[in-house]
Amino acid sequence: MTTLNSQTIAQLAEHLESAERQARDVTKITDDYPGMDWEDAYAIQDEIRRRKRARGHQIAGLKAGLTSFAKMKQMGVASPVFGFVADYMAVPDGGEIRMDGLIHPKVEAEICVVTKAPLKGPGCHMAAVMAAVDFVLPAVEVIDSRYRDFKFDLKSVVADNTSSARFVTGTRMRDLADLDLRTMGVVLEKNGAPVAMAAGAAVLGHPLAAVAMLANHLGARGQEIPAGSFIMTGGVTEAIAVEAGDHVVARLQDLGSVSMRFV
Ligand code: OOG
Ligand code: MG
What we know:
Blueprint: H1 6-21, H2 29-32, H3 38-54, E1 59-65, H4 69-75, E2 81-86, E3 90-91, E4 95-97, E5 106-115, H5 126-132, E6 133-143, H6 154-159, E7 164-169, E8 185-190, E9 193-199, H7 207-219, E10 230-235, E11 240-241, E12 247-252, E13 256-262
The structure holds 2-oxoadipic acid (OOG) and magnesium ion (MG).
2-oxoadipic acid binds next to β1, α4, β6 and β10.
């Protein structure tokens, strides 16, 4: 049950999506609607998805966020959130990302999967996810909260589609059976220097646990993860702020590297 009426939900979606499209920050929506609940937050995100589709965009993937202890600590929150990425957010590996379309972007290295079978909760678990993974690939997500100074609470960030802005995927596909996602080392470099590092287990003990959580989250709402979905399991390390001129490389053990330049 949402607490906000559909008109308010539509107006807040317009407010947040316009802030994204115009690359300007706004105050957090819970300042004005302190009583809003999780249903409201996901309803606003759904309305943002509907607006993008109506404008001709495709949904490129699903994401879990705030799944690592580093990220939860950095943002001062205690539970994961779920969102989506759209086609126009995709940047090719080695590509340039224009700062003028963004507010205050940060980068984070992520372990991602593409599925070959649908996943449906409730009751989705690790083994079901393992059976459904087609291949594993690396990515860097560029998050760009629309909220002033990147400060938010969980409901505000869910409504803001979990800060989705850009993403860069690597081009090497690996079989899950050949990898240990828990011990997989991840190093994030900015301008040649390592700025953050961690192992896959930082993400909920195992990155695939984030996929099971996503399936269970969707299942509670009568939805599923369709076969063929690209899923980002969440930043392994804390997110690192970038500015024009920065060159970012993420190196994921056994998955290769992903790079981009901010201009
Ligand atoms: C929310 C999005 C978090 C991740 O991978 O943890 C996220 C934020 O920190 O702005 O995408
Ligand atoms: Mg992320």
